[in-house]
Structure formats: C-alpha cells, structure tokens
Amino acid sequence: MNRLHNLDYLRGLAAFGIMLYHHLSWTTGKMMSDSFMGRVGVYGVSIFYVLSGLTLYFVYFDKMTPTRKEILAFTKKRIFRIFPLLWLATFAAILLSGVMPDLMKLFLNLTGLFGFLKWDAYFSPGIWSIGNELVFYVFFPFFILFSKSFKPLMLALSAIIFGIYIFFAFYKLNQNIPISEQWKDYINPLNQVFLFLGGYLIGYFFRTKSISKIATFGALGLGISLFVFYPVSGDPIHLVTGVARLVFTLCCFLVCFSFFKLTIELPSLLHKLFSFLGEASYSVYLLHPLIFKLTLIAFTFCGNHFYVFPNWIQVVASIASTLVISYFVYHYFEKYFMKLGRSKTPI
Q1: Rounded to a whole number, what is the largest CA-CA distance in the chain?
Q2: Which of 110, 198, 288, 337 lies in disulfide reach of 84, CB 3.0 to 4.6 Å?
Q3: Between the CA of residue 67 and those of 62, 73, 144, 163, 347, what are the distances in Å?
Q4: Terminus-to-terminus CA distance in the chain, angstroms?
C-alpha cells in the first residue's frame, strides 16, 4: 500500500507540474527545452504513461490470465473510469469554444476512436493523451498473456515497440522543425506506447525484488539530475528526438522506479495533500485548461470594467479554482462512476 501511495504522490506531482507549465506558457509565452518547466511540460505526460503501465501491472497481473471474460471486465472498468470525465471535458470545451463541432470529430471523441484513427482530433489540451491511453489498453492484455505464457513473444513485442520508439526519435521526427509543426507525429500513440510498456516492465521485473534505500535514492537522484542538467536547448523538439529522447525516457523510468520502491511515510498533512493530488490527477489534468479559459474570461471582463489584474493573479486564481473543482469532481463524479464500474464487473 505504501508503494501505491508513493505512485499517487508522483502522479499528483506530475499533474500539478503540467498544470503549472500550461498556465505559465499561456501567460508568459513558449518555454524552451533548456528550462525546467519546459521539460516538465513535455515529460510530465510521459510520467503518466509509465505510471499507467506500472499501476495496471500491479492491479491486474496476478488476477488476469487473461481470458475473454477477464478482458471484458477490464474493458468495462476502463470505460467507466475514463469516459465520463472525457465526455464532460469534451462538451465543456465545445461550449467554451462557441463553435459548432465537426460531427465526425465529435463521434471519434465520444467513442474514444480518435486515439486509434485520428489522434490529433481533440477539443481541449490534454485529451490527446487520453486517446493514447485507450490504445495502450489494447496492448495490455497481450503484455500479460505473453509474459505469462509466451515469453519469447513478449521479448519480440517489446523489441518491436522499442524499435518504433527509436524510429520516431531518430527518423520520423525532424530536429530542425518545431514540435508544433510535427505535433501529429509526436502524439502518435505508437510513439508513446514504449513508455507504457516501460512501466509495465518495471512492475514485472522489480515488484518482488528487494532494493536498498541507497540504491533507490541513488536512482532517484540520477533521474532528477539528468532531467535538470542534461544539456538540451532550443525548441522542445530537441527534448523528444535523438539521444535526448533516450536520456529523458531513462529519467522517467528511474523516477517511477524509485517512487515504486520507496517506503517512506510522509507526515499526515503532506500525505493527505499529495494523495488528493494523485487521486484527483485525472480531473486536474483534463479540467485545468477549461478552468483557465473561464478565469481568462472573468479577468478580461474585470479588466474592461473594473480593474486590470496582473497575470500572476490569474494564474493563482485558476490553479486554486482547478484544485477546488477537481476535489468535488473526483469525489462526486469520478468516484461515482468508478463504483458503478466495479459493481458491473466483479473481477
């Protein structure tokens, strides 16, 4: 349980970091690859993917064969966990845009098929990664099946996924073209699935392994140091191409591995704070762009009629509002559908 709490802490930190990155970039301008927040903005989502693979391994590996019934139960639970808030965020983004949506794009988002067919067809920042996640769920039962019954096939599949990762990092994505112009290629789920696989393999190889605190903290220190100090500059495309892609991926694996194996207990207040951030990370992640837009509308109205507030006030107000709203959305919306999903799937 301590390990799962630690993963919640890291998930919450990643969600908060991505939210802060977006707020700063939307108010102060684009962040380059040599800035700490610029790196958090890119690899915070990667941390989510690694944690997703690791958490799903932890929860399902022992109880999935997988049979057809087990895969169906897994799929139902994922639908109840992912789709209600995805739909809420999608409709809220459409309403805030004030533009009639393309019906095919809306269909792809509501069914989750955009992750498989048109992964750049989303309505709000962050939703693209949910499409990626839905694709990863298709891989997951094969990871379990091959790991348990066909290990050579698991080795071959892992090699193929890593090879695709290398293809994108060294060939598909061009270091001389800004990431904004290659965004569709970058968010291709095949360019991200290796991160999910890495989390799964961390669980597979290290769940029962005893790792000393010195080694764990050493891995954490190495991961953070490389993340902060590895020399990369210019457009964020340089963070996701070439050798840098491998280095920062290693950082994600080291940090997630360390939090997985850590057994430190935080003081009660910090535990509650970080646990809340981890539990409500899905709401924080999907809702913060929408709440930022609402606060922008409110502050623009105030600026036109009463008083012009500095940007940092808007950032603080938006972040505080996101945390408060996410608390209620998690407890009274997400948890309702999670409970409903469990009631429909006894496995």
Answers
A1: 68
A2: 337
A3: 13, 10, 11, 29, 11
A4: 20
Q: List all residues 6 or more positions away from 166 whose beta carbon is below 8 Å from its beta carbon.
A: none
Q: Which residues contact 19 (CB under 8 A, 6 or more apart)?
A: 284, 285, 288, 319, 322
- Per the CB < 8 A criterion, the answer to whether 236 and 218 are in contact is no
Give the burial class of 255: count Cβ atoms within 10 A of its Cβ; 0-12 exposed, 13-18 middle, 19 or more buried.
buried
Dist CA 227 CA 223 (whole Å): 6
pLDDT at 146: 97
DSSP state for residue 64 in the 8-state scheme: -
Give the number of other Cβ atoms within 10 Å of residue 153's Cβ.
13
46 closest CA partner among 10, 83, 20: 10
The pTM is what? Answer: 0.95
Q: Give the number of other Cβ atoms within 10 Å of residue 332's Cβ.
A: 9
What pLDDT shows up at residue 186?
97
1, pLDDT greater than 50: no
- What is the residue type of 22? H
> How many Cβ atoms from other residues are within 10 Å of residue 243's Cβ?
11
Residue 263's domain comprises 2-344
75-84 residues labelled b (16+ CB within 10 A) or e (exposed):
ebbbbbbbbb
DSSP H stretches of helix in the chain: 2-28, 36-60, 68-97, 103-111, 114-117, 127-149, 151-167, 183-186, 193-206, 213-229, 242-261, 268-279, 281-305, 311-329, 335-344
Considering only residues 1 and 293, tell me which one the structure prediction assigns the higher pLDDT.
293
The tokens for 14 are 């990643």
Kindly report, residue by residue over 254-308, the tens digit of the pLDDT. 999 999 998 777 888 888 888 899 999 999 999 999 999 999 999 888 877 787 7
Contact (Cβ atoms closer than 8 angstroms) between residue 49 and residue 132: yes
pLDDT of residue 161: 98
Helix (H/G/I), strand (E/B), else coil: 337? helix
- How far apart, in whole angstroms, are the C-alpha atoms of residue 196 and residue 69? 23
